[in-house]
UniProtKB/TrEMBL annotation:
One of its GO terms (molecular function) is phosphatidylcholine lysophospholipase activity. InterPro entries: Ester_Hydrolysis_Enzymes (IPR051532), SGNH_hydro (IPR013830), SGNH_hydro_sf (IPR036514). Transmembrane segments: none annotated. This is SGNH hydrolase-type esterase domain-containing protein. Residues 1-20 form the signal peptide. Residues 57-221 form the SGNH hydrolase-type esterase domain. Pfam families: Lipase_GDSL_2. Keywords: Signal.
Length: 239
């Protein structure tokens, strides 16, 4: 009888941790998606002398850019490195800023952040918090000798994945703050919004079929603006 009780107790002790392990929910182990570009970063060659390296940090708009217009990324006079991740908000970009920007030794970084903050992808939108995240990234870049281009958030009248947030005026207000901060700190401000917005402060169908993500025609509006902003950043030293 004692032997039977001992066997039952041992079986219970052995199976309980296993059941607990099976029942435990899978945690979010890579909130900032640091793994996304980890291998590509390791394989990236050192910058080529005479060809400034420009890292584009952003969300899905930046993520889709090299696939939509690969010729632009293969061109000169700059080496563009895309480091966009679909759905990301400014705090996630800030977490991966060292790995996906600074460690790549760029001459310039172009930061495009805010769309998914306004869309509340990782929680309620707070304009002050979003601006602070952008400021933190800009300060990190400057402290490491990287020149900064701060991009306006692209226009959007609504988000198809989270309708009813009335993002247009929020985007305009955030852009005004980004612009003011860039002017104050002598960073280059890249205004995509003015060049692309329709009469409703949205992104027209000629530039985006879903009102948020540019198609080729949209990127072709953005590209010369980016080239000009990078050239301006290279022209003068940051204070």
């Amino acid at each position: 009888m004692k032997r039977l009780l001992f066997s039952l107790l041992a079986a219970t002790l052995l199976t309980t941790p296993l059941l607990a392990q099976q029942a435990a929910p899978k945690p979010e182990t890579d909130w900032a998606k640091l793994a996304r570009y980890a291998e590509a970063n390791q394989q990236l060659a050192a910058p080529v002398a005479g060809t400034p390296r420009v890292v584009l940090l952003g969300n899905s708009i930046t993520d889709a850019w090299p696939k939509t217009d690969p010729a632009f990324f293969a061109g000169k006079p700059y080496e563009y490195i895309g480091r966009g991740i679909s759905g990301q908000t400014s705090p996630q970009m800030l977490v991966r800023f060292r790995q996906d920007v600074l460690e790549l030794r760029p001459t310039v970084v172009a930061i495009l952040a805010g769309t998914n903050d306004v869309a509340e992808n990782t929680g309620p939108y707070n304009q002050h918090a979003t601006l602070n995240n952008i400021i933190s990234m800009a300060e990190l870049a400057r402290a490491n000798g990287v020149r900064v281009v701060l991009c306006s958030v692209l226009p959007a009248a609504d988000f198809w994945w989270r309708k009813g947030l009335n993002p247009a005026p929020k985007i305009v207000a955030l852009n005004e703050q980004i612009k003011a901060y860039a002017r104050q700190q002598h960073f280059v401000y890249l205004d995509y919004h003015t060049a692309m917005a329709d009469e409703h402060q949205g992104l027209p169908a000629t530039y985006a079929t879903d009102g948020v993500h540019p198609i080729l025609a949209g990127y072709q509006v953005m590209e010369p603006l980016l080239q000009k902003a990078v050239a301006e950043a290279l022209k003068h030293k940051q204070k």
